[in-house]
Amino acid sequence: MKPSVLFVGFGQIASKVHQVLADEVSADVVKKSKDTRVAECVSKLFVGDIAESDTWQKIDGHYDYIIYCVTPQGRGEDAYRAVFYEGLAHCVQHVKAQRRPAHILFVSSTSVFAQKAGETLTESSEAIGASATSKVLVASEKLLSDSGLPHSVVRFSGIYGGTRTRLIEQVAAGSPVLSDQVRISNRIHEHDAVRFLEFLIRRLIAEESLDNLYLATDMQPSDLNDVYAFIAKALELTLNPNAIASGERRRSGNKKISNKRLLSTGFELSYPDFRKGYAEMCARFDKGSE
């Protein structure tokens, strides 16, 4: 019998994880809206608001693993609280009712770190949240940690790749905001984000132990100015030297995220730094569409 997985949320990351694991697991999905494409590729689709208990009462299966990878319906605190905290609280209650609790993989973010003085941060670094939304993530992680359930939190740094072309579009439009101060940014390619979740699920299936927390990022924290400059060169464009903003302008920048624990699992990044990923994206980008 195939291991059973419940996907809570089925966006760009989760749906691609399922594509990789489709032949190896039996998967159900709970998400807010109906999607015929989802219904065709999973065993069961439960439609409803995960912040409401009625939705969880529809879910009648018992699962080996739960991939909790949700997208808020807005950028404000209430939108984050609904899907990350309230939805997770219902998920925890649902799992506790199982005879054999599922291992929950909870997708979070390195935005939980408020540090911004260039520190190198690890899984043991303090996470207090720099904004109202990141504080919701901190509270959600604590809810899961306090539950006593088997779990692993994966904090992704800035995900790029796929359809995430914002920085490229800024450069193509001649509107990147450069800075006269260093702004260290951290990122991970979407392909590696998907692969790492799939890697962790396969370790669980093989009955290998996981840590409770992983920071998932690539090998090279980089000054955002350097990223803009690389993209401009790849697009054969010139950055406007006068487009300089004074002072620190990133909400959660200027920290270096360590991926030593991730690498210690034996996982290998396909995109070890931003150059390979953005080179591929820029080669496909149509400057004429901007």
- Look at the structure and name the CATH superfamily: NAD(P)-binding Rossmann-like Domain
Helix % is 25-40%
Query: Order of strands side by side in the largest beta sheet?
Result: 3-2-1-4-5-7-12
SSE ordering: EHEHEHEHEEHEEHEEEHEEHEEHH
CATH architecture call: 3-Layer(aba) Sandwich
What is the typical, i.e. mean, pLDDT? 92
Radius of gyration: 20 Å
**How large is the share of residues in beta strands?**
15-25%
Q: What is the CATH first-level class name?
A: Alpha Beta
Could you say which structural class the secondary elements and strand pairing correspond to? Answer: alpha/beta
Rough shape?
globular
Count the beta strands.
15
Weakly predicted, low-confidence segments: none
Short précis:
With 290 residues, the chain is α/β, with parallel strands linked by helices.
Overview of the molecule:
The protein has helices at 12-21, 36-41, 53-58, 77-96, 132-147, 166-172, 190-205, 224-234, 260-264, 274-284, and strands at residues 4-8, 26-31, 44-47, 65-68, 103-109, 120-121, 151-156, 158-160, 178-179, 184-185, 187-189, 213-216, 222-223, 244-245, 256-257. It is α/β, with parallel strands linked by helices and 290 residues long. It has one domain: NAD(P)-binding Rossmann-like Domain (Rossmann fold), CATH 3.40.50. Helix 1 (12-21) packs across helix 7 (190-205), helix 4 (77-96) packs parallel to helix 5 (132-147) and helix 8 (224-234) packs parallel to helix 10 (274-284). The longest helix is centred in the first third of the chain and has 20 residues, at 77-96. It starts with a strand and ends in a 6-residue tail after the last helix.
